[in-house]
Specification:
This protein has about 350 residues and is of the alpha/beta class. It has helices at about 10-25, 35-40, 40-55, 75-85, 90-95, 105-110, 170-185, 200-215, 265-270, 285-290, 290-300, 305-320, 320-325; strands at about 10, 65-70, 95-100, 115-120, 130-135, 145-150, 150-160, 160-165, 195-200, 220-225, 240, 245, 255-260, 275-280, 330-335. About 45% of the residues are buried. Bound molecules: S-adenosyl-L-homocysteine.
């Protein structure tokens, strides 16, 4: 295991290093459970979302079905099973691409999805019509944190003794935005001392590239992740180790680091690139509109009582507001001519 850096390292570099080490050595799913691991219906519904949205885009073929951060491959295996049953044209037209940096998780994915082509980044995914799905991918991307000090800002670095604050590197590109967000929260021009504003540059870059692709070719993307509806200042960096909250500055590789996704900023990025944006919408109503409870009910019918109860409990966990139904949001970006995709119409 590697320790904390000897010299101050910018928080995003530290977070990237920590997560690369973590995903290379752990099966993260012993530490936390994600929606596709909770219920098979989650992946099934997302697969059908992709198939219906492909229809709304005019059934371009060939078409890429892409997943970013596929974990164990569960979501995609469930999605493809559902698509093969009820959307055979889409199944026949698609080629599967997975964006995954962890060799360990790639091996798990390959066992379940042998037909896939793997990529480290979106850059190498061919430019073509695409449907992209991503659950709990954006929250793993490294963030920067700026701290209000008097009339100026510092940036958080990680040093041998813990957090240190240094002068921000090239904040100027985002200075106006950081300022506005702190002011919105305070309701007056003087931002509160020590207020933290976060910025996830790789998420912005990913969404900007993806939105441009969805505009250039008929395409659409669906993100599910956790974070507030409106950009909110505050420290959302969190760490999980051995299934429990841990110190985010634990030695790199020992904990999974995530931060809230800034959906409003990503929606603005996608709009700037010319994409149509839907959401963010809380996961509960989104999944309910896609038929979470109907599909779960049908599955449960043929099961022994204990298994049926477990399926229903899993659906409730995904959808209930005080569980995963409100904090998690769905955000879609689509080609500008795409009608409202499933789950987003009121
Ligand atoms: N979507 C899965 C896994 C979520 S965990 C699920 O819902 O269960 C985050 C996933 O993103 C893991 O597969 C992790 O290896 C991958 N990942 C994290 N950072 C990444 C990056 N920068 N590029 C590509 N994949 C990344």
């Amino acid at each position: 295991m590697i320790g904390r850096p000897d010299r101050p390292m910018r928080l995003d570099a530290f977070m990237a290093r920590a997560n690369t080490a973590y995903y290379a050595t752990h099966d993260p799913f012993t530490d936390f459970t994600t929606a596709p691991e909770i219920s098979q219906v989650f992946g099934e519904l997302l697969g059908l979302w992709a198939a219906v949205t492909w229809g709304l885009l005019g059934r371009p073929r060939p078409v890429l079905l892409v997943e970013a951060g596929p974990g164990r491959g569960t979501l995609m295996a469930d999605a493809l099973r559902a698509v093969a049953q009820v959307a055979t044209d889409f199944r026949a037209a698609l080629s599967l691409h997975l964006i995954e940096t962890s060799p360990r998780l790639r091996a798990l994915q390959a066992a379940r999805l042998p037909e896939a082509t793997w990529h480290d980044r979106l850059d190498t995914v061919p430019h073509a019509p695409l449907l992209l799905l991503a659950n709990e991918f954006l929250d793993a991307l490294p963030i920067r944190q700026f701290v209000r000090r008097g009339s100026t800002w510092t940036e958080r670095y990680v040093g041998p003794e813990g957090f240190v604050e240094l002068e921000p590197e090239n904040l100027s590109r985002f200075a106006g935005e950081v300022e506005t967000r702190s002011v919105e929260r305070e309701g007056h021009t003087a931002a509160a001392e020590a207020l933290i504003v976060e910025l996830c540059e790789p998420a912005r870059a990913f969404v900007a590239d993806l939105a441009a692709r969805c505009v250039a070719h008929p395409g659409a993307a669906l993100f599910l992740d956790y974070g507030p509806e409106h950009s909110t200042p505050g420290d959302s960096l969190q760490a999980i180790a051995n299934g429990r909250p841990a110190d985010p500055l634990s030695p790199p590789g020992s904990a999974d680091l995530t931060a809230h996704v800034d959906f409003a900023a990503l929606a603005a990025t996608a709009r700037d690139a010319g994409a149509a944006v839907f959401g963010p919408l809380p996961q509960g109503p989104f999944l309910a509109r896609l038929g979470l409870f109907q599909r779960t009910g049908r599955l449960a019918q043929d099961q022994p009582p204990q298994r049926a109860a477990a399926l229903i409990e899993a659906a409730q966990r995904l959808a209930e507001p005080n569980r995963m139904g409100r904090l998690f949001k769905a955000l879609a970006l689509c080609h500008p001519s795409c009608p409202t995709p499933p789950g987003f119409a009121a």
